[in-house]
Write a structure and sequence with these properties.
Strand order of the largest sheet: 5-6-1-7-8
Mean pLDDT: 80
Low-confidence stretches: 1-43, 475-574
Distance between the termini: 75 Å
Number of strands: 14
Length: 574
DNA sequence: GGGGGAATATTAT
DNA sequence: TTCCAATAATATTCCCCC
């Protein structure tokens, strides 16, 4: 059914009818998908779209033959582990859609007057909070890495070129985009699309240097600008505009001109009253262009009305497909089906969509945001031998320690990430009672987590530390941590019952009472951490005999209970 | 039933 | 020949334990 025909029908129906109409369409589509699943190869559009990658429908690709490109990608991928994995992913999304439609069946006949009133109240209150006082600009450098490379090698400008390697591209120039070559695409696929493609390796220092120049321009117009990456930032131009004769549009032209003069690079920009709108706008006239969304309610509502859901930052490929399955394609659809969506979606997702429909979002640059996790991960030729796995883990711990040193951080939650050769992802983590940062300490805990997953054949390993604190802070050092416990304002831990003594301290690992100085205490904790590997073996033997397979939630080994004698007694006796 | 931690899933650059 | 990245944040779901 073509779109205009569909719109025509929709406009003649009541709200409930519209939803039922689109939902029944969906059910038919789902049946089609089911039939597709019975074929030897998936041919559904959703799957090919998934395979094509996350940026398949992005800027610079309007005039390319998408079907032809998707076919080349499909042929190049067929038979690989990645392909099979994507197929499973695609099926999982279909299942999720089925679940949503089941939910829909249960509520479709209910009277939703009450819901509609609630939602309208919510909309009214959001409307009252609408802030039109700010002027935000989102600036995005055009094909940044590629453009920086072209500065040193101008001959590349007229040739299709991409920055990255055979396994992954970071970006491509506009010449290459004509062939469907784009960021987040593996290089070997890109070469199939465009055999004459020139691959340029990454030069991070160059991009950093270029970024510094660009940022020095941002700084002049908003000293509190919020960088999102090397090539992207939000500027709040409100203050600058107050003491300037320029219109917002003119000012941003000036900023882009200055960026170009300083760096020889071009940028695109969006200007609006908040971050979300500015970001959407910066996509409209790229490359080397800008778009201004007048800062008044009706302009904003008009602008959002026909916007495809996928244009909203935060709505990715999966959400787009799931919502499309219930007939939501544009922001206007969100409003039309607001009552049903309020019952179908989680409150957070629902509120996010309503705010999107209204064109409302924050215009804050929360400057005091602190990092919540830090990690390193590496892809490599498959390994499965436990010795090799541990060696890899050890290397990663060293890298992470260096990063922690550089950032002066410590943390309490250690996690490992494994990507099997099948592309299945496993993440395991453990919170310990004391803050750690040394490679050795992280390794001891992570090794225990890794052991539980054996045997595995993996193509990627990662390690992450979270629940972070700055190293110099009051909580650094385990003794200070226990003083904090005694003040009773630390997160609940197994050691909470230790609050009686002030002179004595209880080891967070083995629970034994110690009367020691800081150094002795640290040594003790180190020893205890050493034992965690033994503990993990015991845990494993106690719980189950299934090996290797991912442990679903219901099969997860039981945690050692607080008062359980076995393990602790074991240590005390030995 | 609810709080909290861990696992899973999605998104973004 | 090679055959799909690295890092971080947030939301949601699952499960254990009070």
């Amino acid at each position: 059914m073509n779109e205009s025909h569909s719109d025509e029908i929709l406009s003649q129906l009541t709200e409930e009818d519209v939803f039922q109409e689109s939902a029944s369409q969906i059910i038919e589509e789902e049946e089609d998908v089911f039939l597709d699943d019975c074929e030897l190869e998936p041919t559904g559009g959703s799957f090919r779209n998934l395979l094509a990658g996350p940026s398949a429908n992005k800027a610079g690709l309007q005039h390319v033959d998408k079907d032809k490109i998707n076919n080349i990608i499909y042929e190049a991928s067929k038979g690989t582990s990645f392909f099979e994995h994507q197929k499973r992913h695609d099926e999982a999304i279909s299942k999720r859609i089925d679940g949503l439609l089941e939910k829909y069946k249960l509520i479709k006949d209910k009277d939703l007057t009450h819901e509609r009133i609630m939602v309208d109240t919510m909309i009214q209150s959001l409307e009252e909070s609408r802030d039109l006082s700010q002027c935000i600009c989102h600036i995005d450098m055009d094909a940044f890495y590629a453009s920086v490379e072209e500065l040193e090698r101008p001959e590349l400008k007229t040739k299709p070129m991409a920055v990255g390697d055979l396994s992954m591209l970071c970006t491509s120039n506009y010449e290459a985009r004509k062939y469907g070559v784009r960021s987040a695409m593996p290089g070997f696929i890109a070469l199939k699309l465009c055999p004459s493609l020139e691959l340029v390796p990454l030069h991070p220092q160059k991009y950093k240097a270029a970024s510094d120049i660009v940022r020095s321009v941002f700084m002049k117009y908003d000293p509190h600008f919020m960088p999102m990456s090397l090539d992207e930032a939000y500027l709040n131009l409100t203050e600058y505009l107050k003491q300037s004769e320029l219109t917002p549009y003119q000012l941003v032209e000036q900023i882009r001109r200055e960026i170009h003069e300083a760096s020889q690079l071009t940028a695109s920009a969006g200007i609006a009253c908040n971050n979300m709108l500015a970001k959407i706008c910066s996509d409209i006239n790229k490359p080397n262009g800008q778009y201004y969304l007048p800062i008044n309610r009706s302009s904003i509502m008009d602008f959002m009305k026909d916007l495809k859901l996928r244009s909203i930052p935060g709505v990715g490929r999966v959400t787009e497909r799931v919502l499309e399955a219930v007939g939501i394609r544009t922001c206007a659809d969100i409003y039309t089906h607001r009552a049903l969506l309020s019952k179908l979606l989680t409150p957070i997702t629902f509120q996010f969509l309503i705010k999107s429909y209204l064109g409302i979002s924050s215009s804050d640059f929360n400057s005091d945001s602190i990092r919540k996790s830090i990690s390193v991960e590496r892809t490599f030729p498959a390994i499965s031998h436990p010795v090799a796995l541990n060696k890899k883990l050890e290397e990663l711990c060293q890298l992470l320690e260096a990063d922690l040193e550089k950032n002066q951080l410590v943390g309490r939650n250690i996690g490992i990430k494994l990507k099997l050769v099948s592309f299945e992802m496993r993440v395991r983590s453990k919170t310990v009672s004391s803050y750690i940062w040394k490679a050795d300490d992280m390794y001891r805990i992570a090794e225990g987590l890794l052991k539980n997953e054996l045997p595995v054949n993996i193509r990627l390993m990662g390690i992450r530390l979270s629940t972070l604190k700055p190293r110099g802070s009051e909580d650094e050092g385990v003794l200070k941590y226990f003083k904090k416990v005694n003040r009773n304002d630390s997160p609940p831990q197994e050691s909470d019952h230790v609050q009686q003594e002030t002179m004595e301290v209880t080891c967070p690992i083995c629970q034994s009472q110690l009367q020691v100085d800081n150094d002795a205490f640290n040594r003790h904790v180190d020893e205890c951490l050493n034992r965690t590997e033994v503990k993990s073996i015991l845990d494993k033997n106690n719980s189950q005999s299934t090996t290797g397979r991912k442990k679903p939630y219901h099969k997860r080994p039981k945690r050692t209970k607080k008062g359980e004698p076995s393990l602790l007694d074991y240590y005390k006796k030995t």
